[in-house]
Design goal:
The protein is an alpha+beta fold. The chain has a single domain, classed as Alpha-ketoglutarate-dependent dioxygenase AlkB-like (Jelly Rolls), CATH 2.60.120. Helix content is about 20%, strand content about 40%. The strands form 4 sheets. A 7-stranded antiparallel β-sheet has the order 1-2-13-10-15-8-5. It has a 4-stranded antiparallel β-sheet with strand order 9-14-11-12. Strands 3-4 form a two-stranded antiparallel ribbon. A hairpin with a 2-residue loop joins strand 3 and strand 4. The protein binds 2-oxoglutaric acid (AKG) and manganese (II) ion (MN). 2-oxoglutaric acid (AKG) binds next to strand 8, strand 14 and strand 15.
């Protein structure tokens, strides 16, 4: 559950959508604090480019990523199982702030680095079985503001497009991952780097 402090804050607001919960905290970190975290994460995280197999052919995904988790937690995706890296001090610091705002604990975090507008992530839901039934996922954005889009799986008329500024926190909860897909589209416009951290609680 999101705690009262978060719900009562002037700086955070719920987005009115059916079949799921979505909250945005546009200035979760102030600009200077967000600048500092961007630099540290850019330098310190173990960024690498994963490859995915589509119809028997392998492709590099259009972004760099890094996966951190409590010891012993592993995560399966694209037929692979991977152990998370050990938390870094900067990540523990950010995680504590995010946990306080959400009133939730997180034991894992997927980081993405979008190098420019040619990087993005396609339509998907964060609905891996290890996340449990209705996961709360807290998504921190740093750097280049990018558009985050959602579309309802059944009702094709339902769409949402949100601009995620430097230092913002987006929280997804309720049945959102069952009923909606989300993506970060590529863009033709010249763009700088963006770092996104998604905090998750693995149940297994
Ligand atoms: O970069 C973002 O804002 C979204 C990333 C995302 O959806 C994911 O990593 O599952
Ligand atoms: Mn996602």
């Amino acid at each position: 559950m999101l705690n009262d402090l978060f719900m009562d804050s002037d700086a955070a607001y719920p987005l009115d959508i059916p079949d799921g919960a979505l909250y945005v905290y546009p200035a979760f970190f102030h600009a200077d604090e967000a600048d500092g975290y961007f630099q540290l994460l850019r330098e310190q995280l173990a960024w690498s480019q994963s490859r995915i197999k589509v119809y028997g052919r392998e492709y590099p995904v259009p972004r760099l990523s890094a996966w951190y988790a409590d010891e012993g937690r592993s995560y399966g995706y694209s037929g692979l199982r991977s152990e998370g890296l050990s938390w870094l001090p900067v990540l523990l610091e950010i995680k504590a702030r995010v946990e306080q705002a959400c009133g939730e604990d997180f034991n894992s975090m997927l980081a993405n680095l979008y190098r420019d507008g040619r990087d993005g992530v396609g339509w998907h839901a964060d609905d891996e079985p290890e996340l449990g039934e209705n996961p709360i996922i807290a998504s921190l954005s740093l750097g280049q503001p990018r558009t985050f889009q959602l579309k309802h799986r059944q009702d094709k008329s339902l769409k949402k497009s949100i601009q995620l500024p430097h230092g913002s926190l987006l929280i997804m909860g309720g049945e959102l991952q069952h009923h909606w897909l989300h993506q970060l589209p590529k863009s033709q416009r010249p763009m700088g780097e963006r770092i996104n951290l998604t905090f998750r609680q693995l149940r297994v």
